[in-house]
Amino acid sequence: MSQCCVSGFKWNGEPEGKVTKLGKNDVYVTGTNNEVAILMVHDVYGWTLPNARLLADHYAKEADATVFLPDFFGGEIVTPKMMEDPKKREAFDLMAFIGRNNKEKRFPEISEFAKALKTEHGFKKLGAIGFCYGGWAVFQLGAKGKNLVDCISTAHPSLLKKEEIDAIGVPVQIMAPEHDQQFTPELKAHANSVIPSLNVEYDYQYFPGLTHGFSIRCDPSDPKQKNGMERAKNAAVAWFAQILHLH
């Protein structure tokens, strides 16, 4: 993962949901729908990022769902303020952080949380969306035969492998910026070649001129970035509304 994963701007507004605990995980919850849920798998900034919580509020209201944004980093928090300090930014070892939160360690926890939303909490429909670090996780949640989620969405996924793309078994949405060191042109081409052959609904949204992180960590004072952020939010809302409510 690159340092573009640890840059971004804080949005305005105050999150409207609540912080609680489900199983072993602290979680931000927003929304009131008892049948339809969305699981957000966060980026490197984790579950406390105000942007992520504000976006969860949008999904809850506009896609008519209860949205869950859990802590999948075991209480370790990376904040935008840390990254604004050049010394702290330089001292932050991103690869060591990712090593502590690798796929083998974190996916069982993510999988169990998703499973519990249906089996223990009674949700009939469940979508999942992952940003950056969370991108690989939602692809694994949506793999053939796992029956964990009904659809997935991802924006600028990181750490994603071709075999994870090949294994997808549920409707999938990808929101891809033009410039992304993680979701490379090769991976974009692979997804657009393979997924249409897998007999799943596929929505590919391309964002020319934008970069990794645009959908959750853009600068809203930049009209191009703000437009991309809003378009991505609206695309995810429309996707979840279609798959979770109309199917």
From TrEMBL:
One example GO MF annotation: hydrolase activity
All residue ranges annotated as the Dienelactone hydrolase domain in the record: 32-243
Highest taxon of source: Eukaryota
InterPro entries listed in its UniProt record: AB_hydrolase_fold (IPR029058), Dienelactn_hydro (IPR002925)
Record Pfam families: DLH (PF01738)
Protein name: Dienelactone hydrolase domain-containing protein
Organism: Cladonia borealis
